Automatic annotation (TrEMBL):
It comes from Arenibacter arenosicollis. This is Chorismate-binding protein. Coiled coil: none annotated. Pfam families: Chorismate_bind. Residues 96-298, 316-359 form the Chorismate-utilising enzyme C-terminal domain. InterPro entries: ADC_synthase, Chorismate_C.
């Protein structure tokens, strides 16, 4: 990534103008979108085109950065993510008592039959000495299989992340999504052994997606669950695909967001518990972000039976959205790192706390190393 490329992003930031730079999983191109004014544009019905940044709470509007100025630069990545985790002293335990009490409160709700699962989050505040642009460069370098981004709007703030989870991908009327649950720290094993708690949690997410979409799509295909590695963590992943039929993108998004992977089951009861009991505002953490209604131009040759052998051109409408996990918000010389975990009937509070510690290493490895 050239110095001039980072300088362009830095200049846009210091001019107080919105932008986003991002690199999709397993790709080498970093795409950049600049907005020419400070206007705060919102998504109304998901027929718009641009880069969408949506909050966890769907009652708040999703922000849109329009495709006013775009360019692409190839980033030649070096070695992939580091398997090591942070080793220097860090006070990440300041909210431990509160978080453990919150987990126990959630378990009481689950045992009473009110909730089957709820995802609880926490945030870690740290001082930083690196610029946000250096942090983004490190994210792209370290997490080659994640969706890495840096996003800024002067009326919203500055966010960075490296998320492993697809929220929704569409090409014309075809769609794909995934359920991702369960977490284990990578320790050199080929595949991890999953316990009942993780498997049940994963099935809850998959079943929610299946039930939410069954009356709105056709040709619904649900894959077998597999172990998927993301950085120094393992997760359980199931892919879901199908055809949207007459359902529009807005309708599909509304029934899926927020999924049990970031909220809980039943969705509205779990969401109410989260909004009432967490000690911070998630804002855009566990929301979603990405390309909305981009045009993909595909050209190919017709068969040899066509004597003119003309090029055949199709334009597809493509959307690529990711869940905003493994992310941080930059506030002056501070960063707020967001992490969370799913609480179910089989949850052990201390283990759930440790899971958030493990997940925090994705961002803390970038901030502190």
């Amino acid at each position: 990534m050239s110095l001039s490329f980072l300088d362009q992003i830095s200049k846009q930031f210091h001019n107080g103008l919105p932008f986003v730079a991002y690199r999709k999983p397993n790709e080498v191109d970093v795409k950049v979108i600049f907005q020419k004014d400070q206007e705060l544009y919102y998504v109304n019905d998901y027929t718009e085109s641009g880069f969408v940044f949506a909050p966890f709470n769907a009652h708040s509007p999703a922000v849109l950065i329009k495709n006013e100025e775009t360019f692409v630069e190839t980033f030649e990545s070096g070695p992939g993510y580091s398997d090591s985790t942070i080793t220097f002293p860090l006070d990440k335990d300041s909210d431990k008592d509160f978080y453990l009490k919150l987990i126990n409160k959630a378990i009481d709700k689950i045992e009473s039959g009110t909730i089957n699962k709820v995802v609880l989050s926490r945030s870690i505040d740290l001082e930083i000495s690196k610029s946000p642009f250096a942090l983004f460069k490190e994210l792209v370098h370290q997490y080659t299989t994640a969706f890495c981004y840096i996003w800024f709007h002067p009326k919203v703030g500055l966010w960075l992340g490296a998320t492993p989870e697809i929220f929704l991908e569409t090409r014309n009327d075809q769609f794909k999504t995934m359920s991702l649950a369960g977490t284990q720290l990578y320790s050199g094993e080929k595949v991890p052994n999953w316990g009942d708690k993780e498997l049940v949690e994963q099935e809850m997410v998959t079943q929610f997606i299946r039930e939410s979409l069954k009356d709105k799509v056709s040709s619904l295909l649900v894959s077998k669950a597999i172990s998927a590695r993301a950085g120094n963590l393992w997760h359980i992943k199931t892919s879901v695909s199908g055809k949207m039929n007459t359902s529009g993108l807005k309708e599909i998004i509304n029934v899926l967001h927020p999924t049990p992977a970031v909220c809980g089951v039943p969705k509205m009861v779990a969401k109410e518990f989260i909004l009432k009991n967490e000690n911070h505002d998630r804002q855009y953490y566990t929301g979603f972000l990405g390309e909305l209604n981009f045009k993909e131009d595909i050209s190919r040759r017709l068969s040899r039976k066509n004597q003119e052998n003309r090029a055949y051109r199709t334009i597809k409408n493509k959307t690529s959205l990711y869940v905003n996990l493994r992310c941080m918000q930059v506030i002056g010389n501070m960063v707020k790192v967001y992490v969370g975990g799913g609480i179910t009937k089989g949850s052990v509070p201390e283990k759930e706390w440790q899971e958030t510690q493990d997940k925090s290493s994705t961002m803390l490895n970038i901030v502190l190393k």
